[in-house]
Design brief:
Blueprint lengths: L1 H15 L2 H8 L1 H23 L10 H6 L4 H17 L7 E4 L6 H6 L6 E5 L14 E4 L12 E7 L10 H10 L1 E10 L10 H13 L6 H9 L4 H7 L4 E7 H11 L8 H9 L8 E9 L10 H9 L18
Length: 331
């Protein structure tokens, strides 16, 4: 873990040219805050992993102390795990997480150490992370997955759609649909015409407060606002028949986000959530959506550009052999 942190810090300094460049951009106090946050979360996640605490066990006081800023990360994987049980309730299940990030993703969340789970991301950091180490890891473009049709039973993708240009979103979703037999679970901040989902408002308010404090705008927040939040109609057009449920009350999420972006106050964000925000978090309007889509066999129109794109992706697919470890059961 120490080597991984040193590597992260060295990479960060390299991006800014030197320690002096980083201090010039962030200031010494903010730089110390960033370093402490990274170290605390890395140590906390290591301890939680060692004692067997993962999202399928819930987010409690222990997690609030050791992983204070990853509160909503835990909840999203908990919701995904519950939804996966509907798609693959018994027997063998091959899972793919698309755009999993440089972490163990759903393999870590489920606590499984077998090859029935595949993590896919463009980042090479995916290959070195120790969480969910038994999973197959593939560096690939999420819009061009190197797998044949129906390779996996179900797919997962957390908080990726909102980072893609509008033109890429249908291709991304089509690739997920193509490689699964049963269905997919997708989460993202969402907008809806009826006001049930209002992701843009809290993101704008968070950005405004950070700017007022002369803070550093998070990259993920900038991408949300630049690319535009997905709408419910947009995703249902790509995932016909999907069930959409909401989470993350907008006001509760904003209060949590504002606290964790204050210098050194992030240490108390998890405890603050459990004390003051948890009850409010289940009420609308929602910032976050979870979509569960079940696949039905339909004829494809091979004349569309999207299908031609998928056919090209299948030209050199990765073959997956039999599971080399006990089959994954989601029951």
């Amino acid at each position: 873990m120490a080597n991984a942190l040193v590597g992260q810090y060295a990479a960060a300094l390299k991006r800014h040219g030197s320690l002096r460049g980083a201090v010039s951009k962030y200031g010494l106090v903010r730089l110390l805050d960033i370093a402490l946050r990274a170290g605390w979360e890395a140590l906390g996640m290591r301890v939680l992993r060692l004692v067997g605490r993962r999202p399928n066990r819930g987010y409690g006081w222990f997690e609030a102390l050791l992983s204070p800023t990853y509160c909503y990360y835990w909840f999203r994987y908990a919701g995904v795990i519950a939804a996966l049980k509907e798609l693959a309730p018994v027997g063998e299940a091959r899972l793919i997480e698309v755009a999993s990030g440089g972490s163990g993703g759903v393999a870590w969340a489920l606590g499984r150490q077998d090859f029935g789970i595949c993590l896919v991301d463009r980042s090479a950091d995916l290959l070195s992370d120790t969480r969910g180490r038994g999973a197959l890891r593939v560096c690939a473009d999420a819009c061009w997955l190197p797998f044949r049709d129906n390779t996996f039973d179900a797919a997962v993708s957390l908080d990726t759609v909102e980072h893609l240009p509008h033109t890429a979103r249908p291709i991304f979703i089509e690739e997920i649909k193509r490689v699964v037999k049963r269905g997919a679970v997708i989460t993202c901040p969402l907008e809806s015409a009826d006001g049930l989902f209002q992701a843009r408002k809290p993101d704008l308010r968070l950005s405004a407060v950070i700017a007022k404090r002369n803070g550093v705008q998070p990259g993920w927040l900038q991408e949300h606002l630049q690319q535009g939040h997905p709408t419910r109609d947009e995703l249902l057009a790509a995932l016909p028949g999907a069930r959409v449920t909401g989470s993350d009350n907008c006001e509760a999420w904003l209060r949590f986000a504002l606290l964790q972006h204050q210098l050194f106050m992030w240490l108390f964000a998890g405890v603050f959530y459990l004390f003051f925000l948890r009850k409010q978090d289940t009420e609308p309007p929602y910032r976050q959506a979870l979509l569960v889509w079940q696949k039905q066999t339909v004829a494809r129109d091979h004349g569309t550009p999207e299908v031609e794109r998928v056919a090209a992706a299948e030209s050199n697919p990765i073959e997956l052999g039999p599971l080399e470890s006990p089959p994954l059961s989601l029951r």
